[in-house]
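Reminder: ligand-aware prediction takes two inputs, not one.
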Amino acid sequence: MTKITGGCLCGAVRYESSGAQAMAGICQCVDCRKSSGAGHCAHMGVPEPGVSVSGPTTAYARAADSGHIVTRHFCATCGSALFSSNDAMPGMIFLRASSLDDPNVFVPQMVVYASRAPAWDRPGEGLPRFDTMPPGM
Ligand SMILES: [Zn+2]
Ligand SMILES: [Zn+2]
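Here is what comes back for the chain with zinc ion:
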């Protein structure tokens, strides 16, 4: 398969994934809103062993609603959100769909934390919606 590639706005950070999308969702939690510049983040989960990153990133770790630590990585120069990891899902890297070279390789499967959505941002029409996380996740 073709590699999934992406990077930041200024071009200092590039990444690629040899693994395909394993899970993908749109998250409307407050942390995603605050860190996104919009009402949601779009996360594409790929297997961590297939991901390589070049260029300097800065990370910010914070406990999510669930209590799990989510670490968000962004470009140290331009601040573009690039990817995140979640200690509840080891072995996975969540690429920010906004940073993909071809954003259409992201195929969202669900909307989570839909209960936190602002009135002006209702993405993912027709997808399953969960008030918080789906049961069991
Ligand atoms: Zn940059
Ligand atoms: Zn979120």
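The helical segments are 30-36. The longest helix spans residues 30-36. We will return to this case in the review session.
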